[in-house]
Amino acid sequence: MSSVEKVVVTVSIDTECDHDSQWVRSNPLAFESITEGLPNRLQPAFESVGAIPTYLLTVEVLENKACVEALKHLDGRYEYGTHLHAAFVEPEKKFYDYAGVDSPDFQCSYAPDIEYQKLRNLTDLFERELGYRPTSFRAGRYGASSESIDSLQRLGYKVDTSVTPHIRWSEPNAVVDFRKAPEQPYFPAEGEIAVAGVYSESRLLEVPVTVKPRLFRDPRWFRPWFATVDQMKEIFRYQLRKHSSQRVLSINMMFHSMEIIEKASPYPQTADEVQRFLDDMQAALQWCADEGASFASLSSLHDLYQPV
Ligand SMILES: [Zn+2]
Questions:
Q1: pLDDT tens, 35-85?
Q2: Ligand 1 centroid vs 3 CA: distance in angstroms?
């Protein structure tokens, strides 16, 4: 017997400058994924199935006038949040020219006060350019810790989506281990990021990226290009089976804005491959809707997970 009353599908998108096939920032720096990708490829695809994407914006996007103009004029239903690549923001900023560079750092490898100030500077930049405070967030390379959660909460964020269950990430200065993290949204315990605690109104909600574990193989993401439409259906069914005692079930698709521009990420390299990406994304989301799921922005999940 399932207690699930509502299945909610969110789409969380790291929204960045164009990259190359090695995940290095384009040189010269280009923003086709914002100026062409959002208005002409992604948003129409989401509108056609009723999905409400959440675009998580990086510092270089918010610093670029043409990008901010495109963002301000984007039609339709969506949310804007923030996404931090810590090497590109003061204090202890490492790069002033972003072209042709990699983004090496986990934000949680900085001292907590430095990390807080980086998050505050990114948040203030968002507010200066778009006129309101963001309330959803994802860490670059998923490099977030319990201190990141506390900083985000101080800055008024309602939802973080940096946690990838079943996966451990490492870089030279830090490790984040989400192998035992809950698969469904939770209010993190004090001093933890990957352990559920008790609800409080001011506590930020963690909305994990939806992945399905596999025996002896890497987990599979609910994500176009990483999974076929049939595999995405199977991941959806797995979550529904495994968490049948919940009232609200969350399915959180993630990818990057650059993935729908050919050669701007390691993934689609041709116009045909971009089309296949978009077709699969739309087909999977339409199937979710046909199964009775509804779509929501990330921040709106915070209220949905209040205990009744
Ligand atoms: Zn990123």
A1: 999 999 999 999 999 999 999 999 999 999 999 999 999 999 999 999 999
A2: 35
Q: Phi and psi of 248, rounded to 5°?
A: -120, 130
1 belongs to a structural domain:
no
Please give the distance, rounded to the nearest whole angstrom, from the Cα atom of residue 21 to the centre of ligand 1: 14
Using the mean position of ligand 1's atoms as its centre, give its distance from the Cα of residue 275 in Å: 22
Q: Tens of pLDDT along 261-286?
A: 999 999 999 999 999 999 999 999 99
CB-based contact 211:220 (threshold 8 Å): yes
CA of 264 to the centre of ligand 1 (A): 13
The residue count for the chain = 308
Which residues make up the environment of ion ligand 1, defined by Cβ < 5 Å?
14, 140
Which CATH number does the domain housing residue 272 bear? 3.20.20.510
Which of 80, 46, 74, 77 shows the shortest CA–CA distance to 62?
Answer: 80
Q: What range defines the domain where residue 105 resides? A: 6-304
